[in-house]
Give the backbone structure.
Amino acid sequence: MLYATASQTVGPYLHIGLTGLNCADLTADAPELAGQRIVIEGRVTDGTGAPVPDGMVEIWQANPAGRYRHPEDTRELPLVPGFTGFGRVPTAEDGSFRFVTVKPGVVPGADGKPQAPHIMVSVFMRGLVKHVATRLYFPDEAEANAADSVLAQVPAGRRGTLVASAQGNGTLRWDVVLQGQGETVFFDI
Amino acid sequence: MPSLAQYRRPYWDTQPEYRFDPYGSTVLRSPSQPLVRIPQTLSEVTGPTFGAEFMREGDNDLTVGNGGDPIGERILVTGRVLDENGRPVPHALIEVWQANAAGRYVHKRDQHDAPLDPHFSGEGRTVTDADGRYQFKTIRPGAYPWRNHHNAWRPQHIHFSLFGNAYATRLVTQMYFPGDPLLPFDPIFQCVPDEKARQRLIATLDWETTQPEYALGYRFDIVLRGRDATPME
């Protein structure tokens, strides 16, 4: 057996190599995309609450029907032309990031039962020797969130860090706190 | 309904811990709470897939496309992308970036007093073939100072970013050069606890790909997380 190559930080100059796949608007190339448009706005902060101006946020999600664009998702659900489910943006000087996308549909969990709708989020930056993996859940899905098998693994007092807050007009606010007060839950996947 | 075959967790000490005090930036940028371990679902075993269709002409030759020959030692970097089970990872995009031969990045945050090279951007992409092999041509990057500690210098390195077949296999790493005297003093290299895991980050001089009268070849194999053969019950 081989051993997986060790992770190393992206460093401060990640933009040189990682800009080519940037995608802030997942809906832009998918004219047939139905579903509920959402805007995700947030900020990445460190252990002192200072913004992280040199980070990168990636998202991965199913389409509104709950289908992932991936060979392993063989369920008979429609794919949407032009919708990849992948987004990537650098954080701005004030640590902020923003995605335009759609609310994903329901996908099954490890037990085969439906998971609450969620978006997978990875964050990279100088000072992170391996990226952190987390999930964004939706504020209008209280019942599904309460039944979600992944959220159930999270200590109750910390679950709130994974649920975005509605700002009206389809905009969701969701911050990533790396460390300390209100620290975002990160997963060992 | 059976669960999905799971990607294995890393072997003890082969991956760094988030907090590593000698690398100062980890102190405030590392989670303080333990990670919450979850079983992989369809969300983790799928992931974005980027293949050859995202490659443009010249993407895997960092020595062209900028109006002239860059300064420095031309090298050929080749290798294979495999999973821990030894299977090749075919048709997978690799993003790379690096400093120029003088140790300077084309980046507004890089204030190192070393010359930029108008003929070198330091950005490239390559894609693995059906056997998981990749190659790119570039210039050997220079060492450069950083402010982590007094007289801190980064060893020569090239950054690599890969997706693999799943969200769970995402990897960003750095390739180093054999015999670099800075390696023992570099806290980023040293944050990997296991000595052999660190050694695997160092490319090897490769006579098979070295081209006479033209360029030295370096070989760097990359291993992504492997998957159990059978689903977890």
Notes: The helical segments of chain B are 26-29, 42-45, 187-190, 195-199. The first strand of chain B starts at residue 36 and ends at 37.
